[in-house]
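Quarterly update from the structural biology core.
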Amino acid sequence: MTGENLLRELLDAVTRGEAVVLATVASTRGSVPRGPGAKALFYADGRQSGTLGGGRFESLAAADALATLRGRGCLLRVYPLHEESPESFGAICGGEVTVFFEPQVPKDSLVILGAGHCGQALSRLARGCGWHVTVIDDRAEWLAGCDAAVRFGGTLEEFLAGREWRAGEALVLASRNHALDREALAGALARPGAAYIGMIGSRRKVARVFAELRVRGVSDEALARVHAPVGLDVGADSPAEIAVSVLAEAMQVLRGRPGGFLRRNPEAGSGESFHGTIT
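Predicted structure, tokenized:
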């Protein structure tokens, strides 16, 4: 695979919100399998595109690549391909390879079911905050109005088929009727892993959906993890205001923050949560 094709694949993966590591041979010394600039992509599920040189060296590089996904930090590592180094792993090429690993991990990711007014407002706000956004709706004309990296023209069940929730992913159900939200919620609870699940609707709608799912055998413990009615109590009324309420709650949950007023938090001025210096 050429470097251009590999970088195009990397861009596609980032657009999809898929965690991947770009590994590049930064420098070499002596006899080595591939020269500086050689690249490979390593995915969290074990897939790989491109090659750094193969053999035991590449298997070690793959393990280091996955470690950077967990640590979310770049890594520069030297691999001795000779027997003189105490870190030698049996290679006898005679040289050394320095590899630079760059993990590409979505910071925050939001899946929205429903491309109506609230879904569109939420997609715009989340994208403006730098989130990776996926919107799901079977109405192409509404889906086109959303600001999203991924627009999926099917059901949530179809979207989840063949994929697993990734760390830091939130789901908001905001479809056009309670039956769609009910079926989507049943599907989401059957495939646990989302860090946050919220459902838009009145308390009456929430009570009805929950009651219908209990009849199907969904436990109260599972339903208790659903944020419904969704959002923080800020008196939101318009779609744009509802989007603020919903995204703020999702952000609070995903980042493990207590919420409330910053001025009442004695630690607010000393950590990363403090935003008073932003201009």
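The longest strand covers residues 20-29.
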